[in-house]
Amino acid sequence: MNMNIERGRKAAERVDAHNEMKTLTDALAARDAEIKAFASKAGEEIKTLGQVSTETKTALEALSQKGTDLAARLAEVEQRLVTRGGGASVGAKSAGQQMIESEQFKAFASRADAGKVTLSTKATITSATTGTGAAGDLVVPDRRPDILAPAVRTLTIRQLILPGSTSSNAIEYIRESGFTNGAGMVAEGAAVGSTDITFEEVTTNVRAIGHMVTASRQILNDAPMLASYIDQRASYGLKLVEENQILAGDGTGQNLSGLLTNATEYTGAQVGTGVTKVDVIRKAILQCRLAELVPNFVALNPTDWAEIETLKDANGQYLWVNLQVGGTMILWRLNVIETTAIPAGEFLVGAGAAAQVFDREQASVEISTEHADYFAKNLVAIKGYERLALAIYRPEAFIHGEFAA
Question: Going by CATH, does the domain composed of 152-402 fall within 3.40.50.720?
Answer without folding.
Answer: no
